[in-house]
Design a protein that fits this description.
This protein is of the alpha+beta class. The chain contains 23 helices and 29 strands.
């Protein structure tokens, strides 16, 4: 996840990842998703197996869960390896009680700082919506927020999000009122255990917010988030690695205080500041602005602004509308081709040049703004590197001097042994034991070394003092066997153990110096002297030894210079100057009460930050020895526990300004050179483009004129051909239509002839009957009137049939308003005989008052084609033949449906059904023109649509399948 990745980046900012001497092992415990004792036990077994043969020098851990795991399992898995932790919330000294070799960096959330920031930048705010999850860390953060809410209850209302789903939280954030500001805590999981990463929180949840959003973690800064006083995982990683590096260079983890301050910083997103119109001058000092790099799009964003784009497009459209007669003709286009580039190209290239220059200027100013911040960060790093060099020198000096001390002690004892052995060897045969012993004691008691501090001692290996503190005890033989140091250790007994087991060796004890009351640590070397069962030794008090080392350190600090004006200094924790690389006269002075002109107790602040291991600059006023003026100084320092001193260094603001001026001049020169290059290149490009454009446009003009002449000739020829083709096409369409209509008329004439037989028969029989009854004088009035009515009705029917046929065959092409139901009834009347002969059941569902403005005869022709298509599709032996005809209004359209139960059309050919001359019948039965003509009439002649599909449906509890034609006309 990004948080862990930024911690690693911070670590490798301090450690060299490519260092061949170091091997890094990285484990991700993933405790945000998996936790619990059983999980930790499983991890412990895995790491124990995995790293059984690996010896670690340092362990770095991140977050509370990792630290708790190490406290439980470190010793059993890795041994007493130093641990440096980071990202630990709610750190307290009790957290490490009973655990050795731990130090690290706490992660303190800036609750009050962010609330104060929100109230300052948004004085109108009434609510702060605090977003946090309900995992372990989230609960800690929410608890801490609750503890400070009362302090602000009169100023702002702090609302905590409920334990809801991600979607619900997103919806809630998107609907917040304008008087609310969001403060983002830590969020990894919702109530459904759906996990989300830091950057996805910004995109998914916070990206929907229309109100300002602040955060407590650096990784949330960006997208729609303004920023805040944030925890920086990158800085946590750097500080953790810095502590780790100290340990690897010899410092003890327990001697390094846990860093609890100055780990957070103000970071803001430039785009969000701009979006919510927040003035940068109101931001806290030393705020860091991210996403502040100027892109080329930033320079052009005003041009790309939609408002400007709309105005430009409208202006172009108006100009085109006004001058369309001038532009859209042959001469206008030719002028546009020739003179357009001459006007347009300088305008475009001039705009580009202007924006390039402006862009370059913005980048230049942006770089200037970043110079001071970047240089201070570099100087902070440089200063710390100098302190690291000093610490390395101290550790190397201590190691070197420790080896030297041990070597000197051993050499001195070996010299004493040689003296004693020579006296013994030369006199053992001529003198008594007592005389020889006295000679040895007298000889060694006179010897002094280590600038007069060193002397020899001799004890018997049963605890009697022979030579004690440089004084002979031969006569008194003092009993030292039970002599103890200040820690209660038996000094002589330990010496006796060493010489009896190893003949010689070193030991530490805590004892008073000669003629002094206070005790001091002493390193002693003893060697067995076999002839008299003695041991001879000497020692050195370590505070004397350490003073020698301190003097070497003071000399190093006083003489070390770096860069132009860099120096080191050393203080006691009480503020006494021990060494100073710039003002030697300050050595020995008490600076603890000193303040600068602004009242800053700079010495106390320097010492406090050093003792707390905060590794941050202390800013104060100080006399610059180079300019002899009071200058702002930035100092960073660290505490060396072994020698109880604070070592520091710093940089003057004047040095920063000199670098900034120097870099500014460089940038200014570079900027001017770039502008000059842009202008020169742009003018050259413009000239070349204009010349090429003029040549090209002239060539295009000539080509256009030649082409235009050819085009005119071709157009004249083409117009004649088009007229001929249109005429032929119309004749063909008319022929097809007439053929189709004649085919329908032939069938209709047969139908009419069949339909006329019965009415004519009724008329003939009625007339004959009247005549016969009249002749036989039996004609009654009732029979006469009834027969006359029957003859009249049948005559009317014949007349209507003639009218229907006449209306159908007449070639009217005028649109008229007609009733669709009456048109369908007329069509059914024309095919009535065919309906009866083929035993087809017609099922009608027609709206009565549905009027349509179109061509009634052509529509009747279409209905007849559709009817014939269904009639031909019915099988001869089908018992139930149905044709369903309906009309209705649907979605502002008239919809006419013809649906049969003839089984449908093969899906392989259904898409070709309206093509000319396409038919599924035998050549003797069809020509393929009926449906094609129907399509042309409906679509091209009547501006409607016609579709075909196969359908399955149920009628009178019977399942049917057939084809359905659907015709639609707009109302």
């Amino acid at each position: 996840m990004p948080w862990a990745e930024d911690i690693k980046k911070g670590i490798f900012e301090i450690f060299d990842k490519e260092d061949k001497k170091s091997v890094f092992y990285i484990e991700n415990m993933d405790t945000k998703r998996y936790s619990g004792e059983l999980y930790y036990q499983t991890l412990a077994r895995l790491y124990e197996t995995k790293y059984k043969e690996t010896k670690f020098d340092l362990i770095l851990s991140s977050d509370n869960n990792a630290l708790e795991f190490l406290k439980e399992y470190r010793n059993s898995i890795f041994g007493n390896v130093p641990v440096v932790f980071s990202g630990v919330n709610n750190y307290d000294e009790l957290l490490l009680k009973g655990h050795k070799n731990y130090t690290g960096v706490s992660e303190d959330i800036s609750y009050e700082e962010n609330i104060e920031l929100i109230l300052k930048l948004h004085p109108e705010v009434k609510n702060i919506y605090f977003i946090n999850d309900y995992l372990y860390t989230g609960r800690i953060i929410a608890k801490n927020m609750h503890t400070i809410e009362n302090k602000y209850h009169e100023k702002v209302n702090i609302i905590h999000n409920k334990n809801i789903s991600l979607n619900e939280l997103k919806s809630k954030v998107s609907s917040l009122n304008k008087d609310t500001v969001v403060l983002m805590g830590t969020y990894f999981s919702d109530k459904n255990k759906d996990y989300i990463t830091y950057e996805k929180v910004g995109e998914y949840i916070l990206g929907t917010s229309s109100v300002p959003v602040y955060c407590i973690a650096e990784l949330n800064v960006g997208k729609n988030v303004i920023g805040g006083h944030v925890v920086s995982s990158y800085k946590q990683g750097m500080l953790m690695a810095t502590l780790g590096k100290k340990i690897l260079t010899g410092r003890k983890a327990d001697d390094l205080n846990v860093i609890q301050e100055a780990t957070n910083k103000y970071i803001f997103n430039s785009k969000s500041l701009q979006k919510f119109k927040i003035n940068r001058d109101e931001l806290p000092q030393n705020s860091q602005i991210v996403n502040d790099n100027i892109t080329y799009y930033d320079q052009f964003e005003d041009i790309f602004n939609i408002k400007y784009l709309i105005v430009f497009v409208c202006a172009v459209i108006i100009l085109i509308f006004i001058y369309q007669k001038i532009i859209f003709n042959e001469k206008g286009i030719l002028k546009l081709l020739v003179y357009g580039p001459i006007v347009f190209l300088p305008l475009v290239i001039g705009t580009l040049i202007y924006n390039l220059v402006q862009y370059n200027d913005k980048v230049y100013k942006n770089d200037i703004q970043h110079l001071q911040v970047d240089y201070l960060q570099k100087q902070q790093k440089k200063s710390y590197e100098e302190i690291e060099k000093t610490i390395k020198f101290v550790n190397e000096l201590k190691a070197k001097m420790s080896v030297s001390l041990k070597t000197n002690l051993k050499n001195r004892v070996d010299e004493a042994y040689i003296i004693a052995d020579n006296i013994y060897t030369e006199n053992k045969n001529t003198k008594s034991k007592e005389e020889i012993q006295k000679m040895i004691v007298d000889a060694l008691s006179q010897i002094r070394f280590f600038d007069g501090r060193g002397y020899y001692f001799i004890n018997t290996n049963n605890g009697r003092g022979i030579l004690f503190k440089g004084v002979s005890k031969l006569t008194t033989n003092t009993d030292l066997y039970n002599l103890q140091d200040k820690n209660g250790d038996y000094i002589i007994r330990k010496q006796i153990d060493i010489v009896r087991k190893n003949k010689a060796g070193y030991m530490h004890h805590f004892i008073e110096k000669i003629d002094e009351i206070e005790a001091s640590h002493k390193l002693t070397y003893v060697r067995n002297f076999e002839p008299y069962d003695w041991h001879i030794g000497t020692g050195e008090y370590l505070d004397d030894f350490n003073q020698i080392i301190k003097n070497e350190i003071y000399e190093f600090i006083s003489t070390t210079r770096y860069d132009n004006n860099g120096y080191l200094f050393a203080l006691t924790p009480q503020g006494i100057v021990l060494a100073h690389g710039d003002y030697a006269e300050l050595v020995g002075q008490d600076m603890s009460q000193k303040v600068d002109s602004h009242g800053v107790s700079y010495t106390k602040d320097i010492i406090s930050n050093a003792m707390l291991n905060n590794l941050k600059f202390t800013k104060f006023g100080w006399l610059n020895s180079e300019t002899h003026k009071i200058d702002t100084k930035y100092v960073i320092a660290t505490y060396i526990h072994d020698y109880d001193m604070v070592i520091g260094t710093g940089v003057y603001d004047n040095d920063v300004k000199k670098i900034i001026i120097k870099e500014t001049l460089k940038l200014n020169r570079k900027n001017n050179e770039q502008i000059e290059q842009i202008l020169i290149i742009s003018v050259i490009v413009l000239f070349i483009v204009l010349v090429l454009s003029f040549i090209l446009s002239s060539m295009v003009k000539k080509i256009f004129q030649d082409y235009n002449q050819k085009l005119n000739d071709l157009n004249i020829s083409l117009e004649h051909r088009i007229e001929d083709e249109i005429k032929a096409s119309k004749e063909k369409d008319n022929l097809i239509y007439q053929q189709s209509k004649m085919a329908s008329m032939g069938e209709m004439i047969g139908n009419i002839a069949h339909q006329w037989r019965q009415p004519l028969s009724v008329i003939s029989v009625g007339a004959t009957g009247l005549k016969m009854q009249k002749e036989h004088s039996v004609l009654s009035d009732s029979f006469f009137y009834a027969t006359c009515d029957a003859i009249n009705n049948n005559a009317q029917y014949l007349s209507k049939t003639i009218d229907d046929f006449k209306n159908f065959i007449k070639n009217d092409r005028d649109k008229v308003q007609f009733n669709l139901k009456e048109n369908i009834d007329s069509f059914l009347s024309l095919v009535n005989s065919s309906i009866k002969n083929n035993q087809i059941n017609i099922i009608l569902d027609l709206e009565k008052e549905l009027m349509i403005n179109s061509y009634p005869n052509e529509l009747t022709q279409c209905f007849m084609n559709l009817f014939n298509n269904s009639k031909d599709a019915f099988s001869a032996n089908m018992v139930d033949k149905y044709l369903f005809i309906s009309s209705k209004v649907e979605y502002g359209q008239i919809v006419i449906s013809f649906k049969d139960n003839a089984g449908g059309i093969d899906e392989n050919v259904i898409d070709n059904i309206f093509e000319p001359y396409f038919t599924t019948k035998h050549k003797s039965q069809g020509t393929g023109l009926g449906l094609s003509m129907t399509y042309k009439i409906i679509v091209e002649g009547m501006d409607g649509t016609i579709d075909i599909n196969n359908c399955e449906y149920k009628y009178k509890n019977q399942n049917f399948k057939g084809a359905e034609f659907i015709i639609k006309f707009d109302l």
